[in-house]
Amino acid sequence: MSLVVVNDLSKYFGNDGDTQVHALEHVSFEIANGEYLAIMGPSGSGKSTLLAILGAMSPPSSGTLVIDQIDVYALSQEKRADFRREYLGFVFQQLQLIPYLTAVENVMLPLVVTNHKNKRELAATTLERVGLGDKLNRLPSEMSGGEQSRVAIARAVVNNPPILLADEPVGSLDSKTGEEVLGLFKQLHSEGQTIIMVTHNPESIRDAERLVQLKDGRIVADLMTKDVIPATKFL
Ligand SMILES: Nc1ncnc2c1ncn2[C@@H]1O[C@H](COP(=O)(O)OP(=O)(O)O)[C@@H](O)[C@H]1O
Ligand SMILES: [Mg+2]
């Protein structure tokens, strides 16, 4: 049984008629536990729309999303919020670190609403996991871009969510910082983390196992990257 089952998802914006945008049309695929999947496509192809639906943040116009045998959009809003917190970690292009909180305090944020004991200890252990064990008490402004990205990723996985979702995680980063982020994703994947990464940058997909390509809201390719990586070198 796949961890994620996307069945015939469509998403329309606006009312019926000429102005209605068909952001996703009849998209179906499955994601296995532990898989590292990249979703690519040109601007406007529906990547962010799909990620928002996968992230339990935006109900589809039709179709279903089943994660761990839970029909996500059949849940009440409140139950869906609980589901999101338990199952999903998010890394956004804008890191959204709180500037006046230290690294360890930023990573503790998702734990505030949980009943974890030893929140600070768990946040510290997670920062160690991403190589920032010696920077726990730094403010974001006292860290490099790559370190700030690591804090954001630590915050996304501190709860040990089964799925990590990332939207253009290296989109705005210089190449060295981008390398750090991709290296960390690779590490988390090797530790068993399921990762779904949206990107329009071919270089970002090199460690992903699988590539789903979108165009005009439809899947136009679904490939194992080991078969396509040589070709992307020429893009
Ligand atoms: N909230 C919205 N209202 C209206 N149209 C939207 C909205 N969000 C996205 N769209 C449209 O849906 C299409 C897909 O957008 P998006 O998923 O953001 O694409 P991508 O992330 O691949 O650039 C685009 O035509 C976009 O303009
Ligand atoms: Mg987008």
From TrEMBL:
<keyword id="KW-0813">Transport</keyword>
<dbReference type="GO" id="GO:0098796">
    <property type="term" value="C:membrane protein complex"/>
</dbReference>
<dbReference type="GO" id="GO:0005524">
    <property type="term" value="F:ATP binding"/>
</dbReference>
<dbReference type="InterPro" id="IPR017871">
    <property type="entry name" value="ABC_transporter-like_CS"/>
</dbReference>
<dbReference type="InterPro" id="IPR017911">
    <property type="entry name" value="MacB-like_ATP-bd"/>
</dbReference>
<dbReference type="Pfam" id="PF00005">
    <property type="entry name" value="ABC_tran"/>
</dbReference>
<keyword id="KW-0067">ATP-binding</keyword>
<dbReference type="InterPro" id="IPR003593">
    <property type="entry name" value="AAA+_ATPase"/>
</dbReference>
<feature type="domain" description="ABC transporter">
    <location>
        <begin position="4"/>
        <end position="235"/>
    </location>
</feature>
<dbReference type="InterPro" id="IPR027417">
    <property type="entry name" value="P-loop_NTPase"/>
</dbReference>
<dbReference type="GO" id="GO:0022857">
    <property type="term" value="F:transmembrane transporter activity"/>
</dbReference>
<dbReference type="GO" id="GO:0016887">
    <property type="term" value="F:ATP hydrolysis activity"/>
</dbReference>
<protein>
    <submittedName>
        <fullName>ABC transporter ATP-binding protein</fullName>
    </submittedName>
</protein>
<dbReference type="InterPro" id="IPR003439">
    <property type="entry name" value="ABC_transporter-like_ATP-bd"/>
</dbReference>
<comment type="similarity">
    <text>Belongs to the ABC transporter superfamily.</text>
</comment>
<keyword id="KW-0547">Nucleotide-binding</keyword>
